[in-house]
Amino acid sequence: MGNINDHFFEGQYKEIWRTMIPEILTERELDFMIPYFQLQEGQRVLDLMCGYGRHALALARKGIHVTAVDNLEAYTTEIKTIAATENLPVEVVQADIVGYVPSGQYELAICMGNSLNFFNRSDLQQILHHLAAALIPGAALLINSWSIAEIVFHKFKTDSDGKVGESGMKTRQEILFRPARIEAETEFTAADGSIEIKKGIDYIYSLNEMEAMLNEAGLALEEVYSIPGRKPFTLGEPRAYLVARKK
Question: Could you give the residue ranges of the DSSP H alpha helices within 114-206?
């Protein structure tokens, strides 16, 4: 059975999600990635849980060879179409993320958009092992999260209401334990009055827990940054970028 979040990004929420992530954030994340990891044309990047390809396509437009992996067909089909139209060096894979074993070796693997927090500890540990095995020695893994304990327990809100474009959005969420997680229910109301309800789970890991899991997979946590550059992460920042290196 897939994670409850597997279907969270389908339907009308797929388009709402694009609106919620400003294009400037992707640009700034790339401005961080490319010099920090010294990415060059022809190098290989694995983008796991790539979503609609905001990083994969942007990196490929700079001549970097990207393997873009997601579990949702709607996303992988869209990326294939764009990559073919623009003749971009993107290999697109639709796969069950937990069981996915990358082929080839990569200079960098990325997992952005809080995606690794969709997985419980045993599944996440398996994913990290697969990622580590796909990296060349000294290569890096970049993880973006906003559900680490150092963020969640400092800024958690149970309810939020808002509007994204023409759609209304109401979220009700709570923190549960054993395992620590956020369970959320979001109601989207479209301009025509139609309603779509999505449920999702984000598992909460402290930085110490993340470091232990990375170490167990053969990866050493190098640094944790705040958004979206080289400033070290501090308590309560809204996002964290974890950089780990293959030992």
Answer: 121-133, 149-155
Query: What Å distances lie between residue 125 and 75, 129, 203, 225, CA to CA?
Result: 25, 6, 13, 22
Whole-number Å distance between alpha carbons of 157 and 129:
33
pTM over 0.70: yes
Tell me, what's the pLDDT at 188? 77
Q: Lay out the sheet containing 240-246: strands in order across.
A: 90-94, 65-70, 44-48, 106-111, 135-145, 240-246, 219-225
Give the E-state strand segments of the chain in sequence order: 44-48, 65-70, 90-94, 106-111, 135-145, 159-164, 167-176, 181-189, 195-203, 219-225, 240-246
pLDDT band at residue 4 using 50, 70 and 90 as cut-offs: very low
Q: Tell me the domains of the chain and their CATH numbers.
A: 4-148+205-246 (3.40.50.150), 151-201 (2.20.25)
pLDDT (tens digit per residue) in 103-113: 989 999 999 99
Q: How far apart are CA 107 and CA 44, in angstroms?
A: 6
The Cα–Cα gap between 171 and 176 comes to 16
Instruction: Read off φ and ψ for residue 126, nearest 5 degrees.
Output: -65, -40
Facing residues of 176 across strands?
A: 181
Q: Give the Cα separation of 51 and 118 in Å (integer).
A: 13
